[in-house]
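User: Can you help me understand a structure? I only have the sequence.
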Amino acid sequence: MPRIRSPFGKDVAKLRIERGLLLKDFADRIGVSPSRLSNVEFGERPVPEEWFEIISEEFDLTLPERVELKKSILRSKKNFNFSAQNDGQREVLVAFIEHFESIDEEGSKQIIEAVERTATGNEEIESVREAETAT
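Assistant: Let's start by predicting it. Here is the structure, written out as tokens:
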């Protein structure tokens, strides 16, 4: 069966190609072996938390590039741990978990739009949104 890159792997491969780097060169710059980088790109190992900062700094990513990298790291995760901070959050999590398997593609889009409309406190995403609407 062919290996398929994770969302993170696709973004990192694109970043490498844009900068004219081979997998080995990229791995050297972030301080890991090429096989480890490859395993993470293909979702066979999780993306280490510290890689976001290492890659962002090593390749001098712009704010929009950082936001996209962060999103691709989250999209590559297979397991999530949630800790509700209040009753409202707890109810949202319970409802989501109860109905998760029945959410279709359109429902997914609607949920994402609703969450993004109501989310607060993520300055990076807000800055990108403001920059996008200004252009």
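Now, to help you interpret it: The chain has two domains: 7-76, 87-134. The two ends are 44 Å apart (CA to CA). Let me know which part you'd like to focus on.
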